[in-house]
């Protein structure tokens, strides 16, 4: 019955899932609300409606186990890049000296989307809802540019204006993503910019300010508040983004079933804000929570330079550095944390999605971390074997999958190991160049230093008895 199609398992367009799966009703402890920083109380829906597309706000708090994917969206996915293939990494297995079928390594290939990562799964969706609600423009922030290019692509599909505040340092260092965004018609500004009050206030202090995600968020929020027909868009962390990504895990399940595998033994994804990892694992985690596969290991991988789950605290913290955005209960390194300049730009956020934080706190999932030299090394090993150069973020998952496969080989175990290849690395060649020339640096954050930062921060006081 097993037919691997030379290692790739394809689905037909009509096998694209009809719903997203919502983990909120199955969570082992209840979801924590987003808190308004002005009064320390749960943000009322009207407040969120002014910022995000309405449908997304409804999905953020929905208790329905399944949320239908609109037909038009499924048609767009079918005509562009979904379903994405699941690969058996046969050549990588061989490279690791693994023979036979006792150990199988699979990867879900999200690098085939128009902008080369999983981000369009939610970008197209948010643009669709915005258009439907009469919004004319979406505005967002971007670090390295993966999210910005995803949203620019989504907006262009629906003739929406797209404005992106891009962290100034990346704006000049990574022109590739900027050009891609502009190819999709987006307006891209270096942040801090002269276009907003918050941007100006930073520029006055330092005309050459390198910017940060926190500042870019403040600018995008301010820009979106100017008009009812402009909405703000987020690419990770919040519940509705994780929901949109569950299309990944559901397709994976169908694909595994086609080769006679009910559940993998080990599921792996890299974690920045948590959306691609959540998208892959949520459908499986629900099974685990319902007692179906109690021994399945679900592992999120962080950079050692930004280990919010592995080394941060689980507590209430601000989502942005300027303390204007909502307060969230999550694993965090503190809102004033400035990550070292590692190449995995998408993994340099101080916090983690509340859903991931709750699952980790309840030991449903595990977290681990790796240094970037080992990660990029694993990325090259993967590229040589499988022909795809992974994004530095995705290479974190590759590294962990290789480690797990070697452990299983050492112990003569039977294991199905599956990871999410969240994106390709064609815009991140500098990381690979530095690795090859021996110039890649590792950064480790000592636990003591993290605790010092966390202790020094003004901590929002939230009365949890009010909700
Ligand atoms: C943005 C990004 C990430 C990190 O974001 P998550 O929300 O944690 O998925 C990981 N990989 C790639 C390729 C990305 O573009």
Heteromolecules bound: pyridoxal-5'-phosphate
**Ends distance:** 52 Å
Mean pLDDT: 94
CATH topology of the largest domain: Rossmann fold
Name the helicity range: 40-55%
- Give the spatial strand order of the biggest sheet: 1-4-5-15-10-11-14
Identify low-pLDDT runs. Answer: none
How many helices in DSSP terms? 19
Number of DSSP E strands: 15
CATH architecture of the largest domain: 3-Layer(aba) Sandwich
Secondary structure category: alpha/beta
The backbone outline, from C-alpha atoms, is globular
The gyration radius over C-alpha positions equals 21 Å
- Work out the strand percent: 15-25%
CATH class of the largest domain: Alpha Beta
Explain this structure.
The chain is of the alpha/beta class and 467 residues long. It folds into 2 domains: 9-15 and 69-116 and 240-466, Rossmann fold (3-Layer(aba) Sandwich), CATH 3.40.50; 117-238, Rossmann fold. The protein is built from 19 helices and 15 strands. It has helices spanning 45-51, 54-61, 71-80, 90-95, 120-132, 146-157, 168-173, 175-183, 197-205, 213-224, 239-245, 247-258, 275-289, 308-311, 354-361, 372-386, 392-410, 429-436, 447-456; strands at 8-9, 19-21, 66-68, 86-88, 103-109, 137-142, 161-167, 187-191, 230-232, 266-270, 297-303, 313-318, 327-332, 366-370, 415-421. Strands 1-4-5-15-10-11-14 form a 7-stranded mixed β-sheet, with helices on both faces. Helix 13 (275-289) links the parallel strand 10 and strand 11 (297-303). Helix 6 packs parallel to helix 8 (175-183) and helix 11 crosses helix 13 (275-289). The longest helix is centred in the last third of the chain and has 19 residues, at 392-410. The chain binds pyridoxal-5'-phosphate. Pyridoxal-5'-phosphate (PLP) binds next to helix 6, helix 13 and helix 17.
């Amino acid at each position: 019955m097993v037919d691997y199609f030379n290692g790739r398992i394809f689905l037909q367009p009509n096998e694209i899932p009809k719903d997203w799966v919502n983990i909120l009703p199955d969570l082992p402890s209840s979801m924590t609300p987003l808190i308004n920083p002005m009064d320390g109380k749960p943000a009322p829906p009207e407040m969120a409606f002014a910022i995000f597309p309405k449908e997304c706000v409804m999905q953020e708090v929905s208790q329905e186990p399944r949320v239908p994917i609109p037909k038009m969206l499924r048609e767009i996915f079918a005509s562009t890049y979904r379903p994405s293939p699941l690969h058996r990494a046969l050549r990588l297995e061989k490279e690791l000296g693994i023979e036979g079928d006792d150990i199988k390594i699979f990867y879900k290939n999200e690098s085939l989307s128009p902008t080369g990562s999983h981000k369009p799964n939610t970008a197209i969706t948010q643009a669709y809802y915005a258009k439907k609600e009469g919004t004319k423009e979406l505005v967002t922030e971007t670090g390295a540019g993966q999210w910005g290019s995803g949203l620019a692509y989504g907006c262009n599909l629906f003739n929406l204006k797209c404005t992106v505040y891009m962290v100034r340092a990346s704006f000049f260092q990574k022109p590739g993503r900027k050009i891609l965004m502009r190819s999709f018609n987006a307006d891209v500004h270096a942040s801090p910019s002269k276009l907003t009050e918050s941007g100006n206030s930073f520029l006055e202090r330092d005309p050459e300010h390198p910017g940060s995600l926190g500042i870019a968020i403040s600018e995008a929020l301010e820009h979106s508040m100017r008009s009812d027909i402009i909405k703000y868009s987020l690419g990770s962390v919040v519940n509705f983004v994780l929901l949109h990504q569950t299309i990944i895990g559901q397709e994976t399940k169908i694909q595994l079933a086609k080769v006679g595998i009910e559940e993998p033994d080990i599921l792996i994804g890299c974690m920045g804000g948590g959306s691609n990892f959540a998208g892959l694992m949520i459908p499986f985690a629900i099974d685990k929570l319902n007692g179906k596969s109690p021994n399945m290991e679900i592992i999120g991988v962080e950079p050692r330079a930004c280990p919010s789950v592995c080394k941060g605290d689980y507590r209430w913290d601000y989502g942005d550095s300027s303390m204007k955005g909502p307060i969230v209960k999550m694993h965090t390194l503190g809102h004033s944390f400035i990550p070292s300049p590692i190449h995995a730009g998408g993994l340099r956020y101080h916090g983690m999605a509340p859903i991931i934080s709750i699952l980790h706190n309840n030991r449903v999932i595990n977290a681990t971390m790796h240094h970037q030299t080992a990660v990029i090394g694993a990325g090259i090993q993967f590229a040589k074997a499988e022909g795809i150069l992974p994004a530095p973020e995705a290479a974190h998952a590759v590294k962990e999958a290789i480690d797990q496969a070697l452990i299983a080989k050492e112990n003569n175990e039977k294991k199905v190991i599956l990871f999410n290849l969240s994106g390709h690395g064609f815009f991140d060649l500098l990381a690979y160049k530095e690795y090859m020339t021996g110039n890649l640096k590792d950064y480790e954050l000592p636990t003591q230093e993290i605790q010092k930062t966390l202790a020094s921060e003004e901590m929002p006081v939230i009365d949890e008895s009010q909700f």
